[in-house]
Write a structure and sequence with these properties.
This protein has three domains: 306 residues, Glycosidases (TIM Barrel, Alpha-Beta Barrel); 198 residues, Class I glutamine amidotransferase (GATase) domain (Rossmann fold, 3-Layer(aba) Sandwich); 56 residues, Immunoglobulin-like, CATH 2.60.40.1180. It is 30% helix and 19% strand. It has 16 helices and 29 strands. The longest helix is centred in the middle third of the chain and has 29 residues. The protein starts with 14 loop residues before the first strand and ends with a strand. The structure holds beta-D-galactopyranose. The site of beta-D-galactopyranose has 10 residues, from loops.
Length: 669
C-alpha cells in the first residue's frame, strides 16, 4: 500500500512548515528566519505565492536575485521549498495596462487591483502572462536543489469563484458548445421553453447575470460547473508548463475543502493534482469546530482517493477574516494538527511562518508571532515540530473506515437554488448532521463522490443528494445490493444532471431502491417542530410518503401527516435501504445511526470512549497500525491499549492515559 501519489522531493517524515513571505522583511530577519526554522524542525516552506510584483516590478524587467538568495539560504539549512508560480495576484502594472483582465461580478461590478486575485481566470491575455511567469520560474529554478514541489497560483477561486467578465462569457459559450453541440440540445437541457428563454445560437447566451427574478436554474448549474472547470483549466495550463520543464517535480495547488467553500468541484480536480493539498481554518463561532475540521480532513482524504495528503495551511491561533477572531485555547493547535494527521495528512503546514507587521493580514496568527520567541505560540511551534518528528513512522499509512458518506458539489449547488420548496435548506448542514453523529460514535468516515462510490463500506450515508444522473443512482443501489446499509435522506434523487425533475413521484432516482413514493413535499415553517412516534422531533421538512415495499421505522406522531411514515427501511439485495424523509433532531439522528451501525456490525475505532475523545486508526503496508487519540475534554481519560506511545516514547502495557486537551499516538504493533 505505498501511496500512489508522488510526494515533495527530499522531505522526510511528516512535512512541517508553512507559507514563507521573506519579501516582507529585511535581510537580517530573513537570516534569523532560517535559524528559527531549523530550531523548530521546519522542513518545507511555500515561497513566492504573492511575489509577482517583486519578481517583475515592471513588465519584462525581472529581479530574481532576492529569491535566488532565499532559496539558497533555505537549501543550505536543509529546508525544501514548495515553490509557487507567483501568479496568484497580478502586479499593478499589468492590471493598469490591461484592465480587461479584471474579474466582474454578476451585477457588473469590476474587482480592481489593490487586494489580491484580481484576474479573470478565463482571460486569454491573463493566461498568457501567467504562463509566461510560470515558465520564467520553472526555467530559473528547475535545477535548484531546494525545489521540492510546485505550488500553482493559490487557492484558485477563493475570492472570485464566479467571474462574469466578457472573457468568462466567451469561455462559457465555448464550454456549452462542447457540452451540448447544438443550441437545440442546450434548449432542451436548460428547459428554455419556460419564460421565453429559447436560444437561437450560442452567441446569445450569457453568464447568469443579475436579472429581474430567478435566473434559469440549469444555466446557473452549468455556469457553476463551467466556472469550476475553468479554474481547473487554468491550473492545468500552468501545471503543463511545469511538467514540461521539470517532469521530476510534483505539482499541486491548495484546495479549500470544508463546509464553507462551495464552488469548486474538487472531486473532479483530484486526478490533475500530483498530491492533494488542503487549507483549513476553524470557524471561531462553532463550538464543534473540531468536528468540522475532522470532516474537512476526511474530505481531503476522499478527494485524494484515500492516499496521504498535505495540510498546506491552517493557523497556529486566530485568523483575521472572521467577524470575531478567537485565539486558540491551550493545546488546541496541537490537537488540530494531529487530528489532520490522524485522518491521513502527511504534512502539517501553516499560513504563515512569520506574522506580518504590515498589510491586511497582520492580525492573522503565524508560527512566529508578533510577540517573538518568548510566546506560547512559538513554544507550540517548537512542540509541534518535536511531535511530528516522533510521528515519522506514520507517514504513508492509510486511514481505515467502514462507513462512507456521499458528498457532491453539484448537488450542493443545485439543492440550494432559488424557487425551491424551502429556502432554509443548507446542504452542508444536512451533511454535518449525519457526520457529527458518526464522529460522536467514534466511527471513522470516508467522504466519497457519487461518481466513484467505492465498494466495501458497510454503511453508506447519502444526505440530500439532490441531483443525480442514472450512473450515480445505480452505484448507490449497487452498494445496497452488495450488502451495505444505505441511508438516503430527503430531497435526494429529485432531479437529473440537468436539474429536471424525475417524474412519477419522489425521490425519483431512489424510489425503487427505497421502496417508497412521495406525492408532495410538506416543508415546515420557521420554528415549526413536529414529533415522531419515538418521541424525537424533526424540523424543516416533511413529505407525504407511501410505502411501496418498505416498512415504516418511524411515523409522524402529529401534524397533517400523523401516522404516515417519516423514516423507512427496505430490504435491498444483501443489504438494506433506509429513507429519512425529514430532518430529525440530534437525538433522532443518533438513534437512526445507532440502528444502522448495529445492523451493519460497525464498531468505533475504540469502543466505549468518553464523549469528546476522538480515536482514528491509520494502517501501514506491513500491518502496523497507529491509533490516534485526541482528548477534546477537560478531564484525563484512560484508554485500554497496548503498544508504544510515540509522542512520549513510552511502552503501554494495558492502559494509556490521555491527559485533558492532549493527544496520544499509539503504535499498536
Ligand atoms: C488563505 C490564503 C492565505 C492566507 C490565509 C489566511 O485563504 O491562502 O494566503 O490569506 O487564507 O487565513
Amino acid at each position: 500500500m505505498t501511496p500512489r501519489r508522488p510526494w515533495p522531493l527530499n522531505v522526510d517524515g511528516i512535512a512541517y512548515g508553512g507559507d514563507y513571505n521573506p519579501e516582507q522583511w529585511p535581510l537580517e530577519v530573513q537570516t534569523e528566519d532560517v535559524r528559527l526554522m531549523r530550531e523548530a524542525g521546519v522542513g518545507l516552506v511555500s515561497v513566492a505565492i504573492f511575489s509577482w510584483a517583486q519578481l517583475e516590478p515592471r513588465e519584462g524587467d525581472f529581479d530574481f536575485a532576492w529569491l535566488d538568495a532565499v532559496l539558497d539560504r533555505l537549501h543550505a539549512a536543509g529546508i525544501g521549498v514548495a515553490l509557487a508560480t507567483a501568479t496568484a495576484s497580478p502586479p499593478p502594472w499589468l492590471t493598469r495596462k490591461h484592465p480587461e483582465i479584471l474579474p466582474r461580478l454578476a451585477d457588473g461590478t469590476v474587482l480592481h487591483q489593490g487586494s489580491r486575485q484580481s484576474y479573470a481566470v478565463a482571460s486569454p491575455l491573463f493566461r498568457d502572462y501567467a504562463l509566461g511567469m510560470t515558465r520564467r520560474m520553472a526555467e530559473r529554478y528547475r535545477d535548484h536543489p531546494a525545489l521540492a514541489l510546485w505550488h500553482v497560483d493559490n487557492e484558485l477561486g477563493c475570492h472570485v469563484p464566479h467571474d462574469c467578465s466578457d472573457a468568462a462569457a466567451e469561455a462559457f459559450r465555448r464550454w456549452l458548445r462542447h457540452r451540448y453541440g447544438t443550441p437545440a440540445a442546450l434548449n432542451t437541457a436548460w428547459g428554455t421553453a419556460f419564460w421565453s428563454q429559447h436560444y437561437d445560437s450560442f452567441d446569445e447566451v450569457l453568464p447568469p447575470l443579475s436579472a429581474p427574478t430567478f435566473v434559469n436554474p440549469t444555466q446557473q448549474l452549468d455556469f457553476a460547473r463551467f466556472s469550476s472547470d475553468e479554474l481547473l483549466t487554468h491550473y492545468r495550463a500552468l501545471r503543463d508548463v511545469l511538467r514540461e520543464l521539470t517532469p521530476h517535480v510534483p505539482t499541486t495547488t491548495n484546495l479549500m475543502m470544508s463546509t464553507g467553500t462551495k464552488w469548486m468541484d474538487y472531486f473532479s480536480w483530484a486526478d490533475d493534482l500530483d498530491v492533494v493539498a488542503n487549507d483549513h481554518y476553524l470557524i471561531a463561532g462553532d463550538p464543534e469546530a473540531h468536528i468540522e475540521l475532522a470532516f474537512s480532513a476526511d474530505l481531503s482524504r476522499g478527494v485524494a482517493g484515500g492516499d496521504p495528503w498535505m495540510l498546506m495551511e491552517h493557523s497556529t491561533s486566530a485568523v483575521n477574516w472572521q467577524p470575531r477572531n478567537r485565539a486558540k485555547g491551550p493545546g488546541e493547535m496541537l490537537r488540530n494538527s494531529l487530528a489532520h494527521v490522524a485522518r491521513g495528512a502527511d504534512a502539517v503546514m501553516f499560513f504563515q511562518w512569520r506574522q506580518s507587521a504590515a498589510g491586511a493580514e497582520k492580525y492573522h496568527s503565524a508560527m512566529l508571532p508578533h510577540a517573538g520567541e518568548d510566546s506560547d505560540v512559538w513554544r507550540g511551534t517548537l512542540e509541534l515540530g518535536r511531535r511530528l518528528r516522533s510521528l515519522s513512522p506514520v507517514r504513508g499509512s492509510r486511514v481505515v473506515a467502514d462507513v462512507a458518506l456521499v458528498f457532491d458539489y453539484p448537488s450542493w449547488w443545485a439543492s440550494e437554488s432559488e424557487g425551491h420548496p424551502t429556502q432554509a435548506l443548507s446542504y452542508p448542514d444536512e451533511v454535518m448532521r449525519w457526520y457529527r453523529a458518526l464522529w460522536r460514535r467514534g466511527v471513522t468516515v470516508d467522504i466519497v463522490s457519487p461518481r466513484t462510490v467505492p465498494s466495501g463500506h458497510r454503511v453508506v450515508i447519502v444526505p440530500t443528494l439532490y441531483a443525480v444522473d442514472d450512473g450515480c443512482a445505480a452505484r448507490i443501489a449497487e452498494a445496497a445490493h452488495g450488502g451495505a446499509s444505505v441511508l438516503v435522506t430527503f430531497f435526494s434523487g429529485i432531479v437529473d444532471e440537468n436539474d429536471h425533475v424525475r417524474l412519477g413521484g419522489y425521490p425519483g432516482a431512489f424510489r425503487e431502491l427505497l421502496g417508497v413514493r412521495t406525492e408532495e413535499f410538506h416543508p415546515l415553517l420557521q420554528d415549526e417542530t413536529l414529533t415522531l412516534d419515538d418521541g424525537t422531533s424533526a424540523t424543516l421538512w416533511s413529505e407525504r410518503t407511501r410505502l411501496e415495499g418498505a416498512r415504516a421505522v418511524r411515523t409522524w406522531a402529529e401534524g397533517p401527516l400523523e401516522g404516515l411514515p417519516a423514516v423507512t427501511r427496505n430490504p435491498a439485495g444483501r443489504g438494506s435501504a433506509w429513507y429519512v424523509g425529514t430532518r430529525p433532531d440530534a437525538d433522532g439522528v443518533a438513534r437512526i445511526v445507532d440502528a444502522l451501525l448495529a445492523e451493519a456490525d460497525v464498531a468505533p475505532a475504540v469502543p466505549g470512549l468518553a464523549d469528546g475523545v476522538e480515536a482514528v486508526r491509520r494502517r501501514a503496508d506491513d500491518g502496523t497500525s497507529f491509533l490516534f487519540l485526541i482528548n477534546h475534554t477537560s478531564h484525563d481519560v484512560e484508554v485500554p491499549a497496548t503498544g508504544r506511545e510515540l509522542i512520549r516514547g513510552e511502552e503501554v502495557r494495558s492502559h494509556l492515559t490521555v491527559p485533558a486537551l492532549e493527544t496520544a499516538v499509539l503504535r499498536e504493533r
